[in-house]
Design a protein that fits this description.
Oligomer: heterodimer
Order of helices and strands of chain A: HHHHHHHHHHHH
Largest sheet of chain A: none
Helix content of chain A: over 70%
Strand content of chain A: under 5%
Order of helices and strands of chain B: HHHHHHHHHHHHHH
Largest interface: A-B, 92 and 83 residues
Radius of gyration of chain A: 23 Å
Number of strands of chain A: 0
């Protein structure tokens, strides 16, 4: 295995696959990877600052109606884009840009939501706008952290769109006539529509890594992959029925299939783990393992079945997994 | 080889798709069929053991009411003895040893809880956790592993959090502390000191012959917990918190809490800047003080007008920008590579 860039270049040149010198202006020095904890600090601070900035903008300009809010949001997003553009290294003004962008996104969502999606299907409509906005921002905003956050929020918006578009209603919108129970088939279909595409996109991106690298799209795709992996590991909670979070043992919940959701989330976290492994990201691998364990512990409290059935399900699942591992091991041995 | 290095090579030399595919394979960055095979076996085995183990625990929990007191003790003690036996049979560094000791540590708590439930000892939950930590300490020493120590520290921290954070002002222990004039913020410094002391100890052990006990992630975990408690202590000191002592009596004490945490932060910063091998402690220090100063601003400004919100937004943006700038400067200057460092730890 080749460990250094020089050796690798030498090998590629020997096979006629790389030029003698860099094409165009090479970047000075190696790229320094931003450690995850610096990104986390910046993301949290930028997000909170964005909320404060949104309050400032609304207090300052007092936008009357959805149209004004939309206009203010678009101006903030444009300002954020401009700041990111002039500060490509992300050294000085990118935090201001991130905060402006967060404030702008909220304002745009409020503006469009209030204009087009008042009343019925309000959440699904706003989620659709959020999804489109986040996808556009992944491409448009020239900043790694912003792209990761946008990819994660796009995942969440997609899950909410499917959920509220297909089969659910907001808790606060329920009336006595509104049935609490949904059919298992529809709920499972919703889960599959929400999360199988995310897994599929991750598979395609990991499989076609050389293609998008050759097209020079690393700056867009790589941070987006991180956001998708985090989304698949954690944000599946957004697709779980509210009843599955009621850990207090409420007697009126009779749906046996509610217990399925934490297991599905754990499987999704294992899928995210495979994607993190494919991209060689150890930090994300550890995060996915923790997420899977948390989902399994949620299964302990899962409503709708007895603990005995949960126990039997896990033991059968464990036996199947161990059997599969044994088969693979036997296949590998000569 | 890191993906960022490959990204730069691909961009600088305009590598074609086949060249990049070859580069990914030659550098071992992309898992090949054998690596995927090994990964699948590891994943299936770990997930299978975890699922079967959790299923067994669920089964016992489901039938718990059916067992008598003797049956319950017998069940837990047999499991406990089995774990200790496995650790004896396959001691560390064999992977069975630490795994069995983690389970033995957890079962110690189960036995204590069962004892408290069966004989109504009247002990508080925090006492259970602190006793559990004391009884499980030999397993942590025997484990020679970060995972066993992390389990032990988690138990200890739950006990400390219950005692320092969750006990209400009317609890006997708080009455006793209040008599001495000790406020909530001051008490929160205790778990802060315990965790930071643990981090310092394990950071030292990591450079000695006991390095197996002290992987870098464990040091980071303890330092994070220490700074979390310290930050909460300072926030409680700023906002006043609660306590039965006269508030004016606590002013000097709260000032001491903030000064003490500032002194500890400064000492850690100086040590980190001298060692120049990890930026993580600086991120903790900076993050803590951004949070503390922001709460101070919120408490001072009362947020009644636009100016307050604007100042807060600008403060957060300015401090985090400055923080990112200096931290990335250190990352470059100290040639910190988190992925490589984690691999070597």
């Amino acid at each position: 295995m080749i460990a250094s860039a020089e050796q690798l270049l030498h090998e590629l040149r020997a096979r006629g696959l790389a030029a003698e010198g860099p094409a165009g202006d090479a970047l000075p020095g190696p790229i320094s990877n931003r450690p995850w904890y610096v990104g986390l600090l910046l993301g949290v601070a930028g997000w909170i600052a964005g909320v404060f900035l949104l309050i400032v903008v609304f207090l300052l300009f007092k936008p009357e109606g959805a149209g004004s809010a939309l206009a203010v949001g678009l101006v903030l997003l444009a300002a954020a884009w401009g700041l990111f553009k002039v500060d490509r290294e992300g050294a000085f003004v990118s935090q201001l840009a991130l905060a402006l962008s967060v404030a702008g996104q909220f304002a745009v969502l409020y503006g469009i939501g209030d204009t087009f999606f008042k009343g019925a299907r309000e959440i699904a409509g706003v989620a659709l706008v959020a999804l489109l906005l986040q996808v556009a921002l992944i491409v448009a905003m020239p900043n790694r952290l912003h792209r990761t956050m946008s990819a994660l929020f796009a995942c969440m918006a997609w899950a909410l769109l499917v959920r509220y578009g297909l089969w659910d209603q907001p808790e606060w919108g329920r009336t006595r006539e509104t049935p609490v129970a949904q059919s298992l088939g529809l709920a499972l279909l919703g889960w599959a529509i929400a999360w199988l595409p995310v897994g599929g996109v991750l598979y395609i991106l990991a499989h076609r890594e050389p293609t998008w690298m050759a097209q020079g799209r690393q700056a867009i795709v790589r941070p987006a992959i991180v956001g998708l992996i985090v989304g698949l590991a954690v944000a599946t909670l957004l697709s779980q029925p509210f009843d599955s979070f009621r850990w207090g043992g409420r007697a009126e919940v009779h749906q046996g299939w509610l217990a399925v959701w934490p297991l599905l989330s754990a499987l999704a976290a294992l899928g995210a783990l495979a994607a993190a492994f494919a991209m060689g990201n150890r930090g994300l691998t550890a995060m996915c393992v923790v997420a899977a364990l948390v989902h399994v512990s949620h299964f302990y409290y899962a409503m709708g079945t007895t603990l005995l059935i949960n126990s039997a399900t896990l033991i059968v699942l464990g036996a199947l997994l161990l059997g599969a591992a044994h088969r693979l091991r036997r296949k590998a041995s000569p | 080889m890191k993906r960022s290095t490959l990204d730069q090579l691909a961009r600088d030399y305009r590598l074609s798709e086949p060249a990049i595919a070859l580069a990914l394979d030659l550098s071992g960055s992309r898992p090949d069929a054998a690596a995927w095979h090994a990964f699948a076996i590891r994943l299936l085995t770990a997930a299978g053991i975890a699922a079967a183990g959790a299923g067994a625990i669920f089964f016992v929990a489901a039938n718990w009411q059916q067992f008598g007191v003797i049956g319950r003790f017998a069940l837990l003690q047999i499991a406990f003895m089995a774990c200790v036996g496995v650790a004896w049979w396959r001691p560390p560094p064999h992977p069975f040893g630490p795994a069995a000791l983690v389970l033995a540590t957890l079962l110690t708590g189960g036995l204590l809880a069962l004892f408290g439930q069966s004989y109504q000892t009247g002990a508080d939950v925090y006492e259970l956790f602190l006793a559990w930590a004391a009884l499980a300490l030999p397993f942590a020493f025997a484990g020679c592993s970060g995972a066993v120590w992390a389990t032990w520290w988690s138990v200890l921290n739950v006990g400390l959090a219950l005692y320092c954070g969750w006990l209400g002002p009317n609890h006997f222990m708080w009455g006793w502390l209040d008599r001495w004039g000790v406020g909530k913020a001051m008490v929160l410094l205790v778990p802060c000191a315990v965790n930071l002391g643990g981090a310092a100890l394990f950071a030292y052990l990591g450079r000695t012959g006991y390095a197996d006990h002290a992987p870098r992630w464990l040091v980071r975990m303890l330092a994070t917990l220490g700074f979390l408690y310290g930050t909460v202590a300072c926030i409680v000191a700023i906002t006043g918190g609660w306590g039965r002592s006269v508030e004016s009596e606590l002013i000097g004490q709260n000032a001491f809490v903030i000064a003490a945490f500032a002194a500890v932060s400064t000492a850690i910063a100086v040590a980190t800047l001298r060692a120049k091998d990890d930026v993580f402690p600086m991120a903790l220090i900076i993050g803590s003080w951004i949070a503390i100063s922001t709460i101070f601003l919120v408490a001072t400004l009362k947020l009644r007008d636009i100016g307050g919100f604007f100042l807060l937004a600008m403060w957060l943006i300015g401090t985090s920008t400055g923080a990112a700038f200096v931290m990335m400067k250190w990352v470059r200057a100290w040639r910190v590579d988190d992925e490589d460092a984690e691999a070597n730890a």
